[in-house]
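Thread: "does anyone have the structure for this chain?"

Original post by V.I.:
We have the sequence but no experimental structure in hand. Need at least a predicted one for the grant figures.
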Amino acid sequence: MLFCPPPLEFAAKSFEANTPLFPQALEGISEEEMRRAPSDRNSSMLWLAGHLVRGRGRTLITLGLHADPWDLFGRGTHLDPNERYPGKQEILHRWAEYSGQLHHALRGLKEGDIKKPAQAANPPSLDGTIGGQVAFLAFHEAYHMGQLGYVRKWLGHSALNG
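Reply from O.Q.:
Generated one for you, tokens below.
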């Protein structure tokens, strides 16, 4: 079980719950399916998975650690047919790497760490603090994890839960 200061306990539990869910979402999905989207106005599993990994990286950066910002999957971006994207295995590897670092970072947080003012406006903060940024990123991750599950089912695969 993950322990961190009480203001972030829910966020930490959300990250912890999503950690094993992410590889489950990609299980059985082919590289071709990773690129398919329900419409030209929706995201593919590749973009969603990359964006989720990017979010974990942004959380690490918010906590003062190093991570690749993976701008390829930034907000408002779309898959570019001329761009080279990481494959599913690279995405899963980076998820596992960032998840381990995040778990360790959250365990080491002190209440004073999360009450410090947010250093940047992106990602947004719920209350202007680093803790508020981490809380926003936990919400953001859960939102996109749901989208990943939706596209998985749209592709004809089993649901993530239930």
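V.I.: this helps a lot. The radius of gyration is 16 Å.
O.Q.: and The chain has six helices and no strands.
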